[in-house]
Design a protein that fits this description.
This protein is mainly α. The protein has one domain: Four Helix Bundle (Hemerythrin (Met), subunit A) (Up-down Bundle), CATH 1.20.120. It is built from five helices and no strands. It is globular.
Length: about 160
């Protein structure tokens, strides 16, 4: 498989829609009153999952490109602690940030001068490909949780 084909497949993986729904579809038309509602004590709300994937994806991106980046504290730094109603501004900012960071990762994938299998210079242990695959896998996992939460709240029209 050529390098460009691998890059094309990675972009498709990041955008979703092949083996799992896209981010945009998963969060489309979420009832504002249900954004931060948990269907059960041990199931995260749509908002909690949205913020979690936004925070984690930002961390993976910044870790890959910024030697000065400091990751949030594990695990509490990767989850929102706002339990109040989520207004449109917060909701839309989270969505926009997620999409923007995803597009930054895609730009990284498409930079042909970067060998995706090479170690990230300032990490000395992890490759670009590892971080890209973790972002994709993590996002897909939590998008599935968003859909499950929406179904349990009767907020998903499949």
């Amino acid at each position: 498989m050529t390098d460009n084909v691998v890059r094309e497949h990675l972009v498709k993986l990041l955008r979703g829609g092949q083996a799992f729904t896209t981010f945009e579809t998963a969060i489309e038309n979420v009832n504002p009153k249900l954004r931060n509602k948990r269907p059960a004590d041990n199931i995260h709300s749509v908002w909690e999952n949205l913020e979690h994937i936004r925070i984690a994806q930002e961390d993976l991106l910044k870790y890959s490109i910024d030697p000065e980046w400091k990751s949030p504290d594990w695990p509490e730094g990767y989850w929102p602690n706002d339990k109040s109603e989520i207004n449109d501004g917060k909701w839309n900012n989270s969505i926009d940030s997620f999409i923007n960071d995803r597009e930054q990762i895609i730009k990284l994938v498409l930079q042909e001068n970067i060998d995706l299998t090479s170690k990230i210079p300032h990490t000395e242990v992890h490759t670009y490909l590892r971080e890209i695959l973790i972002a994709s896998e993590h996002n897909a996992y939590h998008l599935g949780q968003i859909l499950t939460t929406r179904k349990l709240l009767n907020d998903w029209k499949s």
